[in-house]
Amino acid sequence: MNPNRLAFVALAIVLTACSSRQTSDTPTPASSVAAATATANGEISAADLEERLTAFAHDSMMGREIGTAGNTMGTEYIADQVARMGLEPAGDDGTFFQTLPMVERRPEGSITIAGTELEMGVDFVPIPRLGSFLPFSTKGSIDGKGVIYGGPASDAPALTADDVAGKLVVLGVPVTSTGRPNIQTINRQALQTYLSAAGVAITALEMLPPGWADFMMQSRTVMSGGDTPEGTLGLFVSRDVAEQLIGAPLADAAVGAMGTTIEGTVTFVEEPARYPARNVVGIVRGSDPELRNEYVAIGSHNDHVGTSGTPVDHDSLWAFLNVVRPMGAESPNRQATTEEATRIQAIIDSLRAIRPARVDSIFNGADDDGSGSIAMLEIAEAFATSATKPRRSIIFVWHTGEEVGLYGAGWFTENPTVPRENIVAQLNLDMVGRGKASDIENGGLNYIQLIGSRRLSTELGDL
Question: Does the reported pTM lie above 0.85?
């Protein structure tokens, strides 16, 4: 059978098995997580999926965030499993691991306005590079730069790239009818125009969601930026600081008005990461002498988002999400209606009758993407133990760092451990437990959602 078809058949079996069983409420003891193994007969079963997923998404994995001990444990678990299955190592130096060049980056510096030193984390917060949403640099200088007011951050660019070149641009943020600034109104196209500036100060510090300022102040594990060129620094500043910078109340400030001169340096310093960030890569070698050097790639991501700084009531959160946001991030972020609030309270009351409140701070990532990672293990085992091997080889890649910007997938794409031109197809598994009738129209145990199966190949879509 064509290996692409074999992969789809195996995936369909896994999806059905995942939909029919839930992970146990009783977690595997932490001491037994590393030793937890499913049956090795190659049969894809709900029992195997449950056993492996319970271990992989266990509390002791601490949410598997990249750059943490939990993610290191998670990748060790996967590598141990594929080694037992007999997959061929396809990482670095004959191992199952492909290690990414990671560092820990944290903000550092000070700012002075008219002789008064500002407090980082209170008066201003440096903005780490957040992809295309806030495309600022982690290197640059605002010392001795003039200040110019660019108007509301929601508006189209009122100034040109030449107007703001070498200056610190201050942008206001509109206030909603409730009197709170609204960060969602930031015009990201305008930010692109202002990347000729030395820095951009967005007047939004007071309205950041709880914990965001602390999050941006923390040391964060990121891809090495040692060769990152100097660019535009980003700051969130308080309204009081913004008005000090432009020398006038925001309501009275004219677009293009020049303000004071800023002093100080803000940068992000980098140190070696404490824990490795690793893709796990293994191969089931094909049987055809001519085709065994071609590969069908199967992927998922091994990381999740770690832990919350503020523990929450697990049952209340589950009840709210189950009623209001059943598709997680794909459901609108909104408040519950009166009818929904009644349903949520009924669920909580029924759970309280069984047990007291359970406070939790760990994002276990059983669905995102424990389900895909464990489905891949089952598929790998099925191929590895089958007496009949596919004609082409299958390369399994458990990518790291998906949650922080597709780090592992990007690194493997740019630095593949097999010739990239020999990879003839790629199948990626993410959150395969979705699709209940309560989640989506026409959902059920046999529901499979395919995204992009015809984007590059109609043949793959037909299969």
Answer: no
